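ugh ok so i messed up the first submission bc i forgot one of the chains. this is the corrected input, ALL of the components this time, i swear. 346 residues overall. if the numbers dont match what u have on ur side tell me asap before i send this to the collaborators (the ones from the other lab, u know who)
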Amino acid sequence: MKNKTLNPYVAGALIGILLVLSVIVAGKYLGASTTFARGASVIEKAVGIDYSKFDYFTTKKGKYGPGSLPNWQLMYVIGIALGAFIASKVSGTFKAEVVPTMWKNKFGSSSLKRGIVAFIGGAIGLIGARLAGGCPTGHGLSGLSQLAISGFIALAFFVVGAAITARMLYRR
Amino acid sequence: MSLLYGLITGILFGLIMQRSGILKYEKQIGALRLIDMTVFKVMLSAIIVGAIGIYLFKDLGVIKLSLKGTSIGAQVIGGLIFGVGWGLLGYCPGIAAGALGEGHVDALWGIIGMLFGGAVYAIIYPFMKKYIISIGSFGKISLPQILGINHWIVIIVFSILMILLFRFFEKKGL
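and heres the new structure output, hopefully the right one now
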């Protein structure tokens, strides 16, 4: 199969159609960040931490707690990894990569360094997403497709914060 | 059935995203550095098509909206904090899952970080609820609602603005 990427506007249109179909067929808007909060509660429960002392994991009838999994969104997030894997394998574009090239060119090839920053970025990102009430998929794609004010505000500040951070990282 | 729908939807999402090439750190950070707008082209195209479809089927009575509540405090501060994380990791949550599927192992560290972040958020949640989320809390409002105009006008104007933006991107080779 040729390694030719899908036109971004076509890809976007397909994602938009996928969103609409998901709402029609399953009644589900797309989102991802909540799964990681729920995942944290599941891990806490598994290692014997009393997750129920955290309001967040018991509020709204345990919507964000361990009892809420497995659910649609968890399968959606797993599906994304699976779909990407299948598509990359079939197209011959799967490649195990520990440090991205753009990062390596600026910060070197240490996978530990990259791993630490990735971990910190993931942690800060998820904290921000749960505070905001969603990530680019939840607020940007699903929120803005519904013309939600929360979506406009969230996506604007996601991009502002990220652009400033990326600019600072890659300064000079 | 719901679990199966989720899995299938995710697989299709991952497939399209992988084929579009935006599961890469270079594409995500490239967009945030404003040197390669591919990620925004995908996202904004999805929103235009999504909005047309969502409101069409809402008008037909087939679907209902599911708006997230507006909270200036939560979306501004949470938004900026998320942004810092996105800029450091180079993937957002859904993209991180896809990036891992494409072979980018660093996404796994990001995912582990996200799980840790989930635990941290649960610890700070009471403070957030009391002091941040309550700032500028306006409920589940949409742009057509607050402007008091028909949603199709908003969708048409938004679509035109985005198409002009796309033309600018193409003209500048972004």
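quick check: Strands of chain B lie at 70-71, 137-139. that seems consistent at least. Chain B touches chain A through 124 residues (CB under 8 Å).
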